[in-house]
Amino acid sequence: MNKQPVILVTGGARRVGAAIVRRLHAAGCAVAIHYRSSADEAEALAQELNATRTNSAHTFAGALENDDTPTALVDSVLTHFGRLDGLVNNASAFYPTPIGETTAAHWDDLFAANARAPFFLAQAATPALRAAHGAIVNIVDIYAERPLAGHVVYSMAKAALVMLTQALAKDLAPDVRVNAVAPGAILWPASGKPEEAAEALIAKTPLARKGEPDDVAEAVRWLLLDAHYTTGQVIRVDGGRALNI
């Protein structure tokens, strides 16, 4: 059995997910890097980390919206590493759903990625996490509390993930701690963000800058490894942005 704490990070191949993976690995964890379609990025990241510490990173593919994927993913991680100490529900879907243009497929997709998959992953991981006295961190959003205009379904789905965080913190106590991180402006969408809109958002952020993926990664590391008396909490990593929504 692996002697390092083993953490499963969904959506761990790119962007914030990759920063979380790197930070946890630097803290001495073995990392299970889940990806859906970013195979090249996931394999490159695992090779990078294994070059510094042998057999400390491995990739796992899966479409989390499929009914059997969460259990199969957890089983694969346990087969490979022999243990599971933490789960980071980072994989997400984000796009606008304007009133009058939103379909049932949009609803199902956004809730599947942002609420349904995290629940079933947590359920599948619970026996191993109880045995390890481990922890779960869900990546939510400041817009779970105050919705983002034009993103009704996304905001609702992330609000559901906040409630899941609190419900699991009760149901899995005292064996498993469950918390969430709510990022603000960390990375613009891959499609970019108009300069004027970006500047307006930063102007409403008290710390007057965009955050970095490492800001989120450090909060996740703390909650997983050091926050021994913290559960059911949502930690905002937003430069104070939520104060001005």
What features would you describe in this structure?
- Belongs to the short-chain dehydrogenases/reductases (SDR) family.
- Keywords: Oxidoreductase.
- This is Pteridine reductase.
- GO terms for molecular function: oxidoreductase activity.
- It comes from Luteibacter rhizovicinus DSM 16549.
- The chain has 245 residues and is of the alpha/beta class.
- It has a single domain, classed as NAD(P)-binding Rossmann-like Domain (Rossmann fold, 3-Layer(aba) Sandwich), CATH 3.40.50.720.
- Helices cover 45% and strands 14% of the residues.
- It is built from seven helices and seven strands, in the order βαβαβαβαβαβααβ.
- It has helices at 15-26, 39-52, 69-81, 104-132, 152-171, 195-203, 213-225, and strands at residues 6-9, 30-35, 57-61, 86-89, 135-139, 177-183, 234-237.
- A seven-stranded parallel sheet has the order 3-2-1-4-5-6-7, sandwiched between helices.
- Helix 1 links the parallel strand 1 and strand 2.
- Helix 1 crosses helix 7 (213-225) and helix 3 (69-81) runs parallel beside helix 4 (104-132).
- The longest helix is centred in the middle third of the chain and has 29 residues, at 104-132.
- It starts with 5 loop residues before the first strand and ends in an 8-residue tail after the last strand.
